[in-house]
What does this fold into?
Amino acid sequence: MTGSLAQLRTLVEKDLRIEARSRQTLGLIIVLGILIIVVLGLGLGAQNNIPGYYATAVLWVAYLFAGVLCFEKTMAVERVDGVLSALLMAPIDRGVIYLAKLLSNLALMLAVALVVTPAGMLFFGFDLSAAPGAFVTVIGLSLIGFAAVGTLFSALVSSSRLQGGLLAMMIFPITLPLVITSTQLLIGAFRDGTPIVSTGLGVLAAFDVIFLTTSWLVFEWVLEP
Amino acid sequence: MPRKSVQLQLKVVMSAVANKLRDLSLVDNAAVVELAALSKSIDDRPILQNISFSLQPGEYLSLLGANGAGKSTLLKMLATLIPPSSGSISLFGQNASANSANLRARIGLIGHQPMLYGELTAQENLIFFAKLYGVANPSAKATELLQKVGLGHRAKDRVKGFSRGMTQRVAIARALLHDPELILADEPFAGLDEGSSRIVENMLSELNQQGRTIILVNHAIERTLQLSKRTIVLKSGQILADEPSSRLSASRIIEEISQP
It folds into this structure.
């Protein structure tokens, strides 16, 4: 167990170090996220026509597209120069590789959320102070589930030439329940003051548990050298 | 039932029994590699058919054949990265399918791709892989190996700035981090100039002289015959020849593997 934890730390450190040096993923996904907010903000005429709390749905659009790009990029690092074969040759549980990639993706998605969310608040006049705890809990749980699915499928399609479109086509339908539940919970919390502790929150938690466990178990078979 | 088929089935059964006994440590077999009736198909297309051979410690074997003969697939199966469709692979006396994780720790893989992270320095790459292998004092081991491959002075430079020859030397250092007993080299000279090829060739020969078993896949037939002691020639996924390299002639091999 200690060995696996040390390996997990080594893998995550490596991912973050490479990202810190190349800045290939983070810069790109933050710009994409902000662009989506700006385009949708301008297109919807947000401040005049729709209530601020609908920004949660717009934020999800930004998270989804930024996420797909993030998952693709972090997995692509392992495909360059055949480094994945060397990784697979190491005496390391494939589940640990999955968890490491998931944590790296979550760290990058958190960074995106920290930049894109204030942009959404600004453009849509979304007052986050009404229920900040609810927002952090719901978005946090949702992003974990989204990253769990995205990390698994990005490994699956990483050897395919159709990567971009294929990954989005695979993970968007799967994460649909997550997006719908999360948006409904947040709109309820911000519009009506409805507590988020409900069946909806249970759905998000169940989604996380199911996809984290399944992905961890099947990752061995989706990761091809 | 045809005699050949009975022989083949007997061979598979015998091999399975031998593997089981080895797994139970009831017999001691010194073979580093033992393949019995190994076959691999991808999308119903046979890539390798009925491959059987064994390799003793310290042997230097080269695998030759035309493109698509199955050399790299065979190497990937020996590295336990892909499973066979049928037949068995025994490495160090253990069934490769059942003990792949443990066996990988005894194998070093060198490819035509460097298998290194370009954004990390040479030293960071080696430390990273050393940690994954649980090598004691990864930093010291990385420094020692970089000195050995003549790149101690470039330890803190990012690999993406290295020439192909330098990158390949770091790749060899990576493959040696955990002191593997078996080294699988898949076209390690691809893209190297004459000088760099010589350096890598010498490094492989040195490793062999130290007692490590080497399997080399290469396209330069004449050169490979000079390097290795034994050669297996593959054609359409089957063994065409398995002989001491000194007994084979490059021109004959080229002629044989070129024929449809």
In short: Chain A has a mean pLDDT of 89.
